[in-house]
Design goal:
single chain; 547 residues; alpha+beta; 27 strands
């Protein structure tokens, strides 16, 4: 594995590939000579705490509100960015999150807030009871699944303050879970007005020794494993002990939002450290794909963006393959910090362990640890687009000849019964029959997998530009809303800009207008105000009607 990686690093350096995000930040944000030590995380926290006191009014903080730190970023030149969650009278505030930006000397510079509404509630005692809120959420879950005979349906309400949907109000956030007729999990989060019982919003909440393996989709790939006596375990000690296990076609059992039992994740073992046959008849073949996808996603975030693991703490996640019966899904779950893959039904989808699927789903984990974009409305579309964009860049980063980089989402897993060649198309999202090419005032009403098309289209245009072209053997033809010609700046710069926007400027309520501002701020940080890259970001957003 190390030999393969070193060879590729040498080849990329020779080719003059653009610098990583970390290098870009060092060049763009650090003075040529800087004698002072860069502030530590503890220093940033102390500076931010002081800023909270001095700028409480501007941040909308009152004596009834509390804060907790979610994330800290210290740039190469010492500027600091501390992200907070907010409570009101000890209740979580949806849309209360904000990011404090500090200068290199610790002085307050600015802040980005998810919402700016001042919170003032006459009471935090609900008129709608918790059992009533649970019933409403269960009904919403059944309605969302088109009357399927759901089993083991449970719901757990939590009292919150909703500041995301207009004037702040008391609300119940209820996680409703169950199993469909095949025994596969379904889940929905329902936000209910705690005074009237009216539904405010709802969204799906099922959002990854050196050997080698023969995968289903990516050919023969290198794997780092752990030897125990004469047996090898599919556990990677070089990437936070990430591992892949067999779910034995079982599912989780969750009650009131708490999983009292989970499908197993029995770690795959092998006698000779050569895993799988490349066929579905060998259960370890899918495990090879899952572990490989985890490895490439880990390496992409670490080597390109300087992020050490999904949560940035160096800890590895784990994978479960062969989950459920003919399960047409794959998902990231924060509660277990794990990736789960179904085998597909064989007609619509094959096993959902393709490389860009792994990159997509595990990026949901990165988003949850940073901007935590709410999974509904325009912010939900941006959440999905973030996974499409960065998951696609994982595929390009891997540089695998069996699954070369492209701007198609899930093209390896679709089967003839699906009726299309991919799940989504970034150059012209409407080719899937449902996604939006351009922003409109109604785009937030679409399913988040379709409203994501606006940002996916922006990302393709920013990287590759408009018009017809063939890239890696795939033909694309990307139009623009305003008839403009957009010149791309390349995938590396797209990734650098989007990742910085996500981790530094976006918040839970960021919409498309806010994403334009966030990415322009990121481009300004990395390349300078008025630079070619800054202007390209503006042009690409205008080309998808986000002005």
């Amino acid at each position: 594995m190390s030999r393969t990686r070193n060879t590729r690093a040498s080849r990329l350096a020779t080719a003059g590939v653009a610098a990583t995000t970390a290098t870009l930040l060092a060049a763009a944000l650090s003075p040529a000579a800087h004698a002072d030590a860069r502030p530590t995380r503890a220093t940033a926290l102390a500076n931010a705490a002081q800023a909270l006191v001095q700028h409480a009014a501007a941040l909308g903080l009152t004596s009834a509100e509390g804060t907790s730190v979610r994330d800290v970023i210290v740039d190469g030149n010492g500027t600091q960015h501390v992200r907070y969650d907010r409570t009101y009278r000890r209740l979580p505030v949806l849309g209360g999150d904000f990011v404090v930006h500090l200068k290199s000397d610790g002085a307050y510079r600015s802040a980005d807030r998810a919402t700016r509404s001042r919170i003032s509630l006459a009471s935090i005692v609900p008129d709608v009871s918790a059992p009533k809120a649970a019933d409403l959420a269960v009904n919403a879950l059944r309605a969302a699944n088109l009357g399927d005979a759901l089993k083991q349906v449970q719901a757990k309400p939590q009292l919150v303050v909703d500041a995301l949907h207009g004037t702040p109000r008391l609300a119940w956030r209820t996680n409703a879970v169950g199993k469909d007729s095949l025994g596969n999990p379904v889940a929905r989060t329902v936000l209910t007005d705690a005074r009237t019982g009216a539904q405010i919003d709802a969204w799906d909440s099922i959002e990854t020794a050196t050997g080698d393996g023969k995968s289903l989709y990516s050919g023969t790939v290198p794997l780092e494993t752990t030897q125990s006596g004469s047996t090898y375990n599919l556990t990677d000690p070089t990437r936070g002990n990430t591992y892949t296990g067999d779910a034995a076609n079982k599912t989780d059992l969750c009650i009131f939002g708490i999983c009292i039992s989970r499908a197993p994740s029995t770690v795959f073992t092998d006698a000779d450290n050569h895993w799988g046959t490349g066929a579905t008849s060998d259960r370890s073949s899918a495990a090879v794909d899952a572990q490989y996808g985890t490895n490439e996603t880990w390496d992409y975030y670490k080597n390109v963006h300087g992020r050490n693991g999904i949560a940035g703490d160096g800890k590895g996640s784990y994978n479960r393959v062969h989950y459920g019966n003919s399960y047409n899904n794959a998902f990231w779950d924060d509660s277990c910090f794990c990736m789960t893959y179904g085998d597909g039904d064989g007609t619509t989808f094959g096993p959902l362990v393709a490389l860009d699927v792994a990159g997509h789903e595990m990026t949901h984990g990165v988003t949850s640890k940073t901007a935590a974009l709410t999974y509904s409305g325009e912010s939900g579309g941006l959440n999905e687009a973030t996974s499409d964009i960065l998951g696609t860049l994982v595929e390009w980063y891997a540089d695998n000849s069996s699954d070369p980089g492209d701007y198609l989402i899930g093209e390896k897993i679709v089967r003839s019964g699906f009726g299309k060649t991919a799940l989504r198309y970034m150059d012209q999202p409407s080719k899937d029959g449902s996604s939006a090419d351009y922003w409109s005032s109604s785009v937030g009403n679409l399913d988040v997998h379709y409203s994501s098309g606006v940002a996916n289209h922006f990302a393709y245009l920013l990287a590759e530009g408009s018009g017809a072209k063939t890239i890696n053997g795939v033909s694309y033809n990307s139009p623009t809303y305003n008839g403009s010609t957009v010149t791309g700046i390349g995938r590396d710069k797209l990734g650098a800009i989007w990742y910085r926007a996500l981790t530094v400027y976006m918040t839970s309520s960021t919409n498309y207008a806010g994403a334009r501002t966030a990415t322009l701020n990121a481009a300004k940080d990395l390349y300078g105000n008025g630079s070619t890259e800054y202007n390209a970001v503006a042009a690409a957003w205008s080309a998808v009607n986000v002005n």
